[in-house]
Amino acid sequence: MKVKILALILILFASTSISYAGSEKENIYKAGLNYIEGFYEGDSSKLKESLSTDLRKFGFWKEKKSGKFGKASWMKYEEAIAYADNVKAKKNFAKPDAPKKVEVMDYTDKIAAVKISAWWGVDYMLLAKHDDKWIIEEVIWEGPSLKAESTESDHTAVKRATLNYLEGFYEGDTSKLKAALRPTMFKWGYSLDKKTNTHKPGKQMTFDQAISLAERIKENKWFPGADAPREVEVLEVKSIIAITKVTASWGIDYMLLAKQGDEWRIDQILWAGVPAEKAGE
Q1: CA distances (Å), 197 to each of 57, 61, 72, 106, 194, in order?
Q2: Residue 146's pLDDT is what?
């Protein structure tokens, strides 16, 4: 009888865990859907619900005549809201058969990586959870093609840039960081308070601060142990944008990369600390 009761408790516990994970993913998905529907329907309320007021969004449009991508185009939060309002005012809604796909690529309890497929192309976005809401903080996009046009050499270069980032900090090697990071890169993250097991308020790291940290790591020999997690995962690569994931001693990093010229560099990073027992999972 005791065995049956124990088995029932375990089943109920497992069901609760699965349900929680499912609802978390659904909330992330909802934020992505608000983003695409906000632009498609001209519904600024959906954008306001899911976009950070400090939104950092940029991307590249491929010209039909030249077949080449133009310079990076930036969109602030206020510009996103204005765009949606304009769509509504002019009734310039997306066509009924327009692509409308949201993919939750990866997530932790604090940050997430999402892919959007829309009429204008593909967006990779990084989200963070604030209280109980998932908010879109960083976005990179390319258009108008939805088809993957990357090469094997692109995948290799993207992985190399991401690995240089990890090794640059682990080894205190500034040359690797300089090869991986664009000087204008933006890195934002949430460290974990080990006493309370909660995340601290977000904090930025600039390119210069990253280089300075690597120098101090080398000078003080703050190298991680041999068993420190060092996993690099290329989530996806398009023509000139990519999204990757790093699992390291400090936690999880999601990063957005762009190809300018023949070089892939990291442009945006969102990271969060995770409990030590989960860092290597």
Answers
A1: 31, 42, 39, 21, 5
A2: 84
Block residue for tokens 């983003």: 35
Provide the 10 A C-beta neighbour count for residue 271: 25
Owning domain of residue 98: 2-143
Return the CATH number at 93. 3.10.450.50
Residue in 168, 240, 246 with CA at minimum distance from that of residue 207: 168
Listed as ranges, residues in the chain with pLDDT below 50 are 1-20, 279-281
- Cβ atoms 42, 85 nearer than 8 A: yes
Indicate the angle between helix axes 207-220 and 152-171, nearest 10 degrees.
Answer: 50
Q: Give just the sign of the alpha carbon dihedral 39, 44, 50, 53.
A: positive
Query: Are both 204 and 247 inside the same structural domain?
Result: yes
**Residue whose tokens read 């949201």:** 102
The vertex-44 CA angle with 39 and 48, nearest 5°, equals: 110
Q: Measured between alpha carbons, how far is residue 13 from residues 1, 7, 18, 26 in Å? A: 18, 10, 9, 20
Q: What is the pLDDT of residue 3?
A: 41
Tell me the per-residue pLDDT of 200-252, one tens digit each, with 9 for 90 and over.
999 999 999 999 999 999 999 999 999 999 999 999 999 999 999 999 999 99
Domain count, the chain: 2
92 closest CA partner among 120, 56, 116, 54: 120
